[in-house]
Amino acid sequence: MQGLLEVKVRSELAHRQRNHAILLWACKITLAIAIVSGGVVGVREVVNRMFLKNPDYNLAAVEITDDGAALSREVILGTAKLTLGENIFKVSLSKAREAIMTLPQVERAELQRSLPNRITIDIVERRPVAWLADARTTDPSTSEKSFLIDSKGVLFKPKRQLPEYLRLPAIYGVAVENYLPGDTVGTPEVCASLELVQKNSDANRFRLQSVDLSKGYCLIATDARRAKLTFGLDDIGKQLDRLGAVLNYAAAQGKEVRTVNLMVEKNIPAVLVDPAASEEAAPAAEASPAASVPADKAAPKPAEPKSTPAAKSARKKSASLSVKRAEPIVRHAEPVVIRRAEPVNP
User: Fold this and answer.
1) Which segments of the chain does DSSP mark as H helices, in order?
2) Given a cut of 70, is residue 25 above it in pLDDT?
């Protein structure tokens, strides 16, 4: 009996000691939580008083550095949702940047806080090189269906019309209704057109006005003098070299190019006209006799052979072959066939 009482007393003592230890740990944890919470509240209050609710850190100025002129200050601020008087630390620069980058005309944007109360925005705009327009559009700058397109093929709508946009060439023959602002056009025809526009941007003798892609396998470019120039989709640089040789030959003859097929590498079909001829008289002027000269020389036109039956037959056969080569471009005129020497130095 005595042993049972001792075991019971020891069990109760251990139970009280265990409860005391648990209570002690609970008190310590509660005290630690209270200290941490008080510290957090205190820190928050300090942060609010020193920064978040301090009027010295209210946004007072937004400085915008834009390398273009197409985006207005109101458009940029409205898109970024920046409001003067808002606490500068409450502005999410990442969200503001993402919003600005949704503008198709923006290629790059960077935002930075400048304490105590200024935010700077650096914007790089896309530079359009041409219009992408519907085939029925005569003036892309006034059409709702037209897009500006940059050298990478990115489409965007102008936020404001700038004078330089009116001088950009137009690219026709693309189903513009299938695209939206911000889309990238990467078809071979459009890429070749953009390459032609860029490589010819500094040319003085050939001012590109429009490019027709409706045929699919070639580009039919029109210059400011309404000359029709046919380019293939590949080797635009070499075709421009051939165009330079043709222009040199035409200048030596005192003529202007009316049509030329630059897809042909050696015998270049071309039709030359008198610069003084009016547009109404152009078809008659185009029907000039064929000539064959090296493309890198401004040689005079060779004399006609004697009127022997064999010569007449040879001339008739040659003329027939020349017309056949030029038929994709000129249907009512006998072309001038130009043979060029290799390599060509325009």
Assistant:
1) 2-47, 73-80, 93-101, 188-199, 236-252, 282-286, 309-326
2) yes
- The enclosing domain of 64 has a CATH number of 3.10.20.310
User: Do 220 and 162 share a structural domain?
Assistant: yes
Number of other CB atoms surrounding residue 24 within 10 Å? 10
The encoded tokens of residue 46 equal: 């300090």
Is 181 within 8 Å of 157 (Cβ atoms)?
yes
H-helix segments, 48-176: 73-80, 93-101
Q: Does residue 344 carry a pLDDT above 50? A: no
**Nearest partner of 168 among 154, 187, 149, judged by Cα:** 149
Pick the range with the lowest mean pLDDT from 31-40, 62-71, 197-206, 214-223: 31-40
Of the three residues 191, 224, 257, the one that is the final residue of a domain is 224
**Largest distance between two CA atoms of the chain:** 154
Decide which of 203 and 314 is more confident: 203
Q: Measured between alpha carbons, how far is 337 from 285 in angstroms, rounded to an integer? A: 16
Q: Mean pLDDT of all residues in the chain? A: 78
As a whole number, mean pLDDT of residues 144-167 equals 92
pLDDT in tens, 272-328: 998 876 354 444 333 333 333 344 443 333 344 444 444 444 444 333 333 333 333
**Boundaries of domain holding 85:** 56-125
Same domain for 64 and 25: no
Query: What crossing angle do the helices spanning 73-80 and 93-101 adopt, rounded to 10°?
Result: 120
SS3 146: coil
Other CB atoms within a 10 A radius of the CB of residue 77 amount to: 17
Same domain? For 8 and 73 the reply is no
Distance CA 124, CA 71 (A): 10
Average pLDDT on 182-209 reads 89
Instruction: Give me the number of domains the chain comprises.
Output: 3
Q: Is residue 177 part of a domain?
A: yes
